[in-house]
Structures
1.
Amino acid sequence: MAAPAQKPISVTPSPEPIPVPPTPQVAPVVGPIMTASEPTQINIPAIDVDSDLMQLGQNPDGTVQTPSLDEASPAGWYTGSPTPGAIGPSVILGHVDSRVQGRAVFYRLGDMRPGDEILVTRADATVAVFVVDGVEKYPKDNFPQFTVYGNTDHAGLRLITCGGEFNETTRTYPDNVVVYASLVSSHAA
Amino acid sequence: MNKKAALLFVPALALGVAVLTSGPAVAATGDASYQGTLDSINGSNGSGTISIQVSGDQATVTETVSGLAETFDGKPYPHVQHIHIGAQGVCPTTAADTDGDGVISTTEGQPSYGEIGTTLSTSGDTSPAAGTDLTVAGMGASFTYNRTFTLDAATAASLEAGTAVVVVHGLDPATLSQAAQDAPSDLVPSLPLAATSPALCGALSASQSNMPIGGVQTGGGSTSNGADIGLLALGAGALTAAGGAVIVRRRLAARG
């Protein structure tokens, strides 16, 4: 990778141009990649999840939207992330529970284990097949933004819900559960 | 400037490659976002992350670093930091240590990451001219840096081309060989080599995801708003993916 050592002739901030190599670096891509297509459904056999997917953007304050709690809400794809199957960290969010519906779509997310399959049906009538790499729990006040949302060298998927012990005073959960998965294959819906 | 013409030529070559690896475009507005992980170089044992949001000619930089040398002459260690541009867009390997003193000096790293395009100064000038001004450096072992400034065309072009690299400088002299400890800086001879040599390095690339804000305001304050208690209770199970502004988000999301 390193260019042949060229004896430096000056130091910054000299305007002398540095020799420009003909080929900039190419980030290696690991595993299969699909073209972009918006997700419509998620199916997780290991925890009996079969949900339509809504679309979630950002709130005005820059935080990510969450599905409505007024009714039984499906999980949702964060539209600021790549579509499932494309390179990068695709994000799907779902509630763990709510007073209206009790156990919600991602109630058992924390039960997932490496090797479990996640199937995401897409608008182009394909199914992206992901396999779980790991399940992590993070305190919300120390959420590893780059680990979850940062660039990846593969078609990744992150499923996110609430975790930890519900705090009756703040009416919140202290943690987030994040399931990390990678695309392994795809097939027709 | 001739240099500018050369820089503009590079993006044209690089774009075809970038498309293959950078995934879907993030923003529909024509704005762009970049990110990088800052890794230890020259044995600094530091680490960090940086993201850059570009909107028109304005760049907002958000950076967090830790584990760097803490003090210099009994004062907080000044870590000058820059966006280097116009070369290979990579961090140097130990092979770049051409004089074999065990330290990849800033100059030795230039074939990899290029020259300074922008100085990530804490105030005032962000041009290369501020590159070694210790008074506007990041200070101490750990710091966060948040600043919005006007992005120059050369740095903007290098960001687009995928050849921009962030370098944070300043090593703990005690970690170097005696010869390297005694050596003068290749940039500012009145300073020791350790003071200006790279400590963190990270190549910037287009963000695959538009990172939500991962704030730290969990449940803050809004629970005192009695009218919202019912809704907040409903929110019991709300996921709060990015951690921040939980209550506000729930209210907004409730009608989503």
2.
Amino acid sequence: MFSRTTLARALALPIEHSSARSASTTFRACLHQATSTTTTTTSQPEAPLSATPRAQTSIPIQQPRFLTSSNSIPQTRADVPLNKQPVAPTFDAPLKVSQSLLELLPNLTSQKPHFITAHLHDRPYLLTAGDQLRLPFLMPKVKSGDILRFNRASVLGSRDFTLKGGAQYLDERLFECRVRVMGFESEPLRITEKTKRRRRHVQKVTSKHRYTILRVMDVKVKTAEELLEEGAVVVESADSAANVELKA
Amino acid sequence: MSSYFRITLMRSAIGLPRRTHDVLKALGLKKRMATVFHPVSPSVAGNIMKVKELVEVQEVDRRLTKQEVHLERKPDPGYYVEKRAGTELRECRRA
């Protein structure tokens, strides 16, 4: 019983606090605020010391906003923002590269061939030019002969050097990875026999999945000159957008 | 400024008393990893305290729609179509 009352008191605090902060409170809210303040002030000495400051210092977390193309809040499964769809990106800010990256980049770009760890739907694929890749799914809305660009990579490298993205992906303006859709493959028909209890019948379930086959056309790491030509901005410290480092 | 509790059911209430199930039902949590939003109020806070071992709570600024909660987990596709199959051929013919 005691715990319940103290809890209610502790939890009444943040509401009263927040309503006091906002200027546009309705009359009813003001009433409620007045009552709650009186109760809290009378019972202040009994309140547990640990609960009070925690409740007062709480600030609601700002949640990320995903806006669809029509600038509305996504409601249904069809509302997917453009950055989560396979469309060519547009950039607002120029690429930021650190001085150390510019100095070390020639080591990587001069040493060919390159490999890339490209992420499709967050699954990593280790690729080099000339590789044939069978995706574990049928890629929608592509035909054989189409050229795709892979734009999410965690690692770029050559024999001796690697460029690592760290926690986030590498900036897509640092590299070019093109693949061509070769066609579609289907697995042999699989038949699974299912039996139910007390039923003299075997149910046969068939499945025949289709997969997309791709060939990697090129994996290219852009040189420092190319990056600067495309409008990259040199940032002194390591707080650049491409938070990367070269490791021998 | 109004704020909301963002409540996610991390552990199921299977094998727990009837009361616990009822509290989760009152909060609108039906299955694990389900997320609901409730305005910050003493009654909701009391409900959360009843099932504090099962849920994860954040205080957030607004309600998210179901699709927005889904989009938080959705990864980027990682590809886009640069050139369609026919366009290369047409360019060659023109040249």
